[in-house]
Write the structure tokens for this entry.
Amino acid sequence: MTSDATALIGIDWGTSRRRAHRIDSQGHVLESRSDALGLSAVRDGNFDVALQPLISDWRETRSIPVLMCGMIGSRNGWAETAYCECPFGIEDLSRTIAPVIGAGGTVHIVGGGSATDARRHHDVMRGEETQFFGLDASGRHLAIAPGTHSKWASLEGERITEFRTYMTGELFALLKDHSTLGWLMPNRDATVGDEKSFREGIKDAVADNDLLHGLFNVRTLGLFDPGRAEGLSSYLSGLLIGCEISSAMTRYAEKSITVIAAAQLARRYELALMTLGARDVRIADVDAVTAKGLWRIWQARGEAL
């Protein structure tokens, strides 16, 4: 049962985009909106002013709480919030919630997650932990939040036990737009949509895990088979995603995998996972689980006090 009354405004404020959700007292999303005013677009760092056009019509009174996750809580954001070291759960994360006073009233920012491997290398995430906590899953399972920096997380119930980051999306953009590999791609802004070339990239990544050599295949394919030019970006995407998945799947034993993403990206990862032998693959909408995660974290704050 839903109500039109706003009980929480939840925001995922990232580097390039931000998404806001108006949530009722039962945790149901009443309305969502997004724009391209991510951290990188707020040139003067005045996040308080930048926030108001996004939510002012939703926040009839200052008593309506606002909870934000993502890069807004980073060192380059509005206020730096703490990391929770793995393993951690919702209550642990809720203890990182920090109030920030702005012209439109007090808002809150939740922290992120961190992990340290056997060689004392650190890994961090901001925003993806909220997505993971928005999943309706029990037992031991694996979740993937693909994107600029893809996150793979192992969860036990409602606790994140470990996670690992792969710079797949960022590397794809850099190679496509700022390297010689993109020279033979007829339209660098085109959506990756050649499924045959994408699958070929996946299989090549698994057949030979020498990525630094394999990447040059993108260029030579275009040189020796000009008819393949339209599919080169798809092949590059498959090569990188295939490398990510084949590497990650050697680390995790979980059979159940949930991909958290918008439809197009989720389909790409589902296709890659199934091509590489995964059988129990589920898709979760990124906006839905982010809103649910923010709601659950806000509700848990009382238990964590």
